[in-house]
């Protein structure tokens, strides 16, 4: 549910959005409360930014601690005691320039007494000693999510423009593990400039790499966000979001290797991961069911004529491009 509007007229005293969704907690399907804080935004996005990220529109240059406190108050009024709380910003919760550490502590304290898990997101370079000290006070509850996107430095640099290398992620993961804080890793499915097949191969390899460092891995299929390079390409017919069959493929090929989930944003829509339009609802339901329960047989009965078309596109991407380039 959007709360504070978007763009320059957005109210800095209101969060971008709060909503409820379903998630899994220790094998049980439970409610999760999600709050998106409006902040000054991602430092990396201000300088360069990732090719698929349009979060800049949810930021506000004048947000200060008093605005953040007002946003927290607003969110707490809507919080119903859900056992999972996810706190998103349009950047990094652990960047002290974006979220003052005192306020970060206040946010975690506000939810940690009720929730069983409080998840925050950060780029890996902000997993610094001060942040770890702060998080350690909530060790039993707090999870950190990092968008690794790809385990290939070449994809990170040329396709995502991520601004860090895999080593930086590995070091952050090591620090979190030492501090006893679970890590959730986001894997991007189909950044621009990869064929459908290359994208699937890259995502499978990245999931296999990330599960070694993570309590949970989330496959995030690219959705076309406003004002991004991806949108620029998409408008010119040079980019198509991934097929939902590709999401299924990555989940099936990584089944049993760790906890791997996917909740495709904009799934079934033109800007999100989609199939032919006829089977999207059913495939999305199966992906969601798999993410909540981890049982691969949810995919067994799926079929549609478009699966053959997807297979042909995958094959074309395989034979025309060299996988060593991924
Ligand atoms: S994806 Fe994350 S790191 Fe990249 S620009 Fe967006 S908020 Fe920043
Ligand atoms: Zn179909």
What does this structure look like?
The structure is a single chain. The protein is of the alpha/beta class and 326 residues long. 37% of the residues lie in helices and 16% in strands. It has helices spanning 43-47, 65-78, 101-112, 129-136, 153-160, 166-179, 196-210, 229-235, 244-253, 280-293, 306-320; strands at 17-25, 28-36, 84-88, 117-121, 142-149, 183-189, 216-221, 260-261. The protein has an eight-stranded mixed β-sheet. Helix 9 packs parallel to helix 10 (280-293). It is globular, with a radius of gyration of 19 Å. The structure holds iron/sulfur cluster (SF4) and zinc ion (ZN). Zinc ion (ZN) binds next to loops.
Describe how the helices and strands are arranged.
Elements: E1 17-25, E2 28-36, H1 43-47, H2 65-78, E3 84-88, H3 101-112, E4 117-121, H4 129-136, E5 142-149, H5 153-160, H6 166-179, E6 183-189, H7 196-210, E7 216-221, H8 229-235, H9 244-253, E8 260-261, H10 280-293, H11 306-320
Parallel strand pairs: 2-3, 3-4, 4-5, 5-6, 6-7, 7-8
Antiparallel strand pairs: 1-2
Helix pairs in contact: 7-9, 9-10
Bound molecules: iron/sulfur cluster and zinc ion (ZN).
Residues 42, 44-45, 49-50, 53, 55, 90-91, 123, 147 line the site of iron/sulfur cluster.
């Amino acid at each position: 549910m959007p709360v504070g509007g978007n763009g320059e007229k957005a109210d800095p005293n209101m969060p971008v959005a709060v909503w409820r969704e379903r998630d899994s907690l220790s094998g049980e399907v439970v409610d999760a409360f999600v709050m998106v804080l409006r902040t000054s935004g991602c430092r990396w996005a201000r300088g360069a930014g990732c090719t698929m990220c349009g979060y800049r529109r949810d930021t506000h240059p004048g947000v200060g601690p008093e605005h953040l406190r007002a946003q927290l108050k607003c969110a707490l009024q809507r919080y119903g005691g859900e056992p999972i709380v996810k706190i998103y910003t349009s950047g990094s919760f652990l960047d002290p320039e974006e979220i003052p550490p005192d306020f970060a502590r206040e946010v975690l304290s506000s939810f940690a007494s009720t929730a069983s898990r409080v998840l925050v997101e950060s780029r890996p370079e902000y997993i610094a000693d001060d942040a770890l000290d702060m998080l350690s006070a909530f060790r039993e509850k707090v999870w950190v999510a990092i968008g690794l996107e790809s385990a290939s430095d070449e994809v990170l640099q040329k396709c995502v423009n991520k601004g860090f290398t895999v080593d930086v992620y590995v070091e952050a993961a090591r620090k979190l593990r030492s501090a006893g804080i679970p890590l959730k890793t986001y894997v991007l499915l189909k950044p621009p400039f990869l064929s459908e097949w290359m994208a699937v191969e890259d995502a499978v390899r990245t999931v296999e790499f990330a599960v070694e460092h993570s309590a949970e891995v989330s496959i995030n299929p690219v959705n076309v966000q406003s004002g991004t390079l991806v949108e620029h390409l998409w408008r010119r017919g040079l980019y198509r979001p991934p097929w939902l069959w590709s999401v299924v493929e990555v989940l099936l090929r990584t089944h049993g290797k760790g906890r791997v989930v996917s909740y495709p944003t904009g799934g079934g829509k033109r800007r999100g991961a989609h199939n032919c339009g006829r089977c999207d609802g059913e495939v999305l339901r199966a992906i969601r069911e798999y993410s909540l329960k981890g049982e691969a047989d949810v995919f067994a009965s799926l079929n549609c004529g478009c699966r053959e078309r997807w297979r042909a596109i995958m094959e074309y991407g395989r034979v025309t491009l060299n996988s060593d380039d991924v």
